[in-house]
Amino acid sequence: MDGNLAIKSKIHKFVDKADDRILRIIEAIVDTEEGTNLSVPESFYQELDNDREKHLKGETASYSWEEVKGRLIKSHEL
Hints:
The protein contains 4 helices and no strands. By secondary structure, the protein is mainly alpha-helical. The protein has 2 domains: 2-34; 42-77, no CATH class. The termini are far apart.
C-alpha cells in the first residue's frame, strides 16, 4: 500500500507542474482507461473542410491510390 501512496504522490506533484501537452497525454490515458469516447476537436473538422475546399478548387494536388503506393514503395527502396 505504501508503494501506491508514493506513486500517487509523485504523480500529483508531476501533474501540478505539467504543461498543456503533458496534461492532454494524461487525459487521453485516463479516458482510454475509463472507456470514455474520445471526441475529435472541432478544429480538426475545420481543417478537413478547408483542405476539401482547396481540393475541390484544384488548389492542391491529387493522386490515385496507385501513384501513392508507387511513391511509398519507391521511398522505401532508397
